[in-house]
Amino acid sequence: MTKRFRPWDPKQKWLLPPEITEFIPEGHPAHFVRDLVVEQLDLAQILDTYDEERGYPPFHPAMMVALLLYAYTQGVFSSRKIAKACIERMDFAAVTGFQKPDFRTIGLFRRRHLEALAGLFQQVLVLCRQAGLVTLGHVALDGTKVKANASKHKAMSYDRMVKAEVEFAETVKGWLDQAEITDMGEDFRFRNRQGGELPAWVANKAERMKKIKEAKAALEEEAAEKAKVKKKDDDDDPPDPPKVDPKAQRNFTDPESRIMPTKNGFEQCYNAQAGVDAKAQVIVACKVVNTSADCPQLLPMVDQVRANLGRKPKVCSADAGFCSETNLEGMETLTWSGS
Questions:
Q1: Are both 95 and 163 inside the same structural domain?
Q2: Cα–Cα distance between 148 and 57 in angstroms, integer?
Q3: Long-range contacts of 5-10 (CB under 8 A, 24+ apart)
Q4: What are the E-state strand segments in 177-297?
Q5: Please, which residues have CB within 8 angstroms of residue 284's CB and are 6 or more apart in sequence?
Q6: Which end of the chain is flanked by fewer CB atoms within 10 Å, N or C?
Q7: Are 139 and 284 in contact (CB under 8 A)?
Q8: Residue 178 pLDDT
Q9: Per-residue pLDDT at 198
Q10: Domains in the chain: how many in total?
Q11: What is the tens place of the pLDDT at every residue in 206-219?
């Protein structure tokens, strides 16, 4: 007797449209995140920005917030990968209701509402505390280096910028002169016909010089700001011309990132800080800075915990990288003040 199998017809039509819960089981995180955004989070700061009645209706902001929050909880941060998941993954479809925003829409929504989305983090913490997931009995702090989306080879020191600016200026001038001579010859040959644009290698080098000038000016501006802060003389005294550290570097791809020591050597990085409640491993504070040392971040992170949840932790643990006389005195002050 031949074994019977269940019918399999991928093109089978549905008599009645299915509900999303028929694809994703109850209790799945996709349902939790979607319902949390709809029923618990205050989205007024985002919704109030949509005051233009004209134009094609955009995706609902609540759906976009739920999509981003769910994607991040699943470790998906790329706008392109999120858009792909909206097409290919049923759990993402359970959040969006089968809507499929493209990666440009997702990226623009995140950038447009970056501050408001950060505020939602605090709302989630309050909900976690109400649910008993955050007790603040013990908070652990630590920092980790996160590679920037830039190569350390795209960074250049100030003294090298000064030399390179002169070198590129001379090189580009020579190329432009050569291009002018070439154009004159081609004008003679082609008369009024199209002669073509300047060679791409001239434009690229000129653009490179422009970026160097901008980076050089930014370093000089930073030095000037530091000089203003350190100046303690009378206002009537003429300010000293700002001096830029010749070793000060600036990355052309990601100017806010810095070269930092990591376990794999020096990399172009940011320093990500996180505070985690010991009971349920809920993140109660986070911060990204562009300084390598963890030490200056201890007191600001404790202050952020207090700002997010209304009080400081009873116990705070951190490794030796956070230890300093200033931090010990600051933590003692917090303990005695009871704040």
A1: no
A2: 36
A3: none
A4: 249-251, 258-262, 265-277, 283-289
A5: 125, 134, 136, 139, 275, 276, 277, 305, 308, 309
A6: N
A7: yes
A8: 56
A9: 46
A10: 3
A11: 666 666 677 777 77
Domain that holds residue 168: 153-228+241-251
Cβ partners under 8 Å of residue 209, min gap 6: 165, 168, 169, 172
pLDDT given at position 194: 43
Among residues 76, 77, 82, 83, the alpha carbon closest in space to that of 102 is found at 83
- Is residue 76 exposed (0-12), middle (13-18) or buried (19+ Cβ within 10 Å)? middle
Reading phi first (left if > 0) and then psi (alpha if -120 to 50, else beta), residue 24 is in: beta
Within a 10 A sphere around the Cβ of 273, how many other Cβ atoms? Answer: 21
Q: Which two tokens stand for residue 40?
A: 């618990």
Distance CA 65, CA 118 (A): 11
Residue by residue, what is the 3-state secondary structure of 156-181? EEHHHHHHHHHHHHHHHHHHHHHHHH
Cα–Cα distances in angstroms (integers) from residue 190 to residues 177, 180, 198, 326, in the given order: 20, 15, 16, 74
Among 251, 285, 310, the domain boundary falls at 251
Beta strand residue intervals within the chain, DSSP E: 138-147, 155-157, 249-251, 258-262, 265-277, 283-289, 315-317
SS3 content of the chain, % helix, strand, coil (to 5): 50, 15, 35
Residues 37 and 58 in one domain: yes
Q: What is the pLDDT of residue 197?
A: 44
Q: 313 and 322 in contact (C-beta within 8 Å)?
A: no
The single-letter DSSP state of residue 147 is E
Residue 289 in domain? yes
Per the model's pLDDT, the better-predicted residue between 76 and 185 turns out to be 76
pTM, entire model: 0.50
Which stretch, 153-167, 229-243, 304-318, has highest mean pLDDT?
A: 304-318
Kindly state the average pLDDT of the residues 50-73. 87
Asked if residue 202 lies in contact with residue 175, where contact means CB atoms within 8 angstroms, the answer is yes
- The size of the chain, in residues, is 339
| pLDDT band of 285, cuts 50, 70, 90 | confident
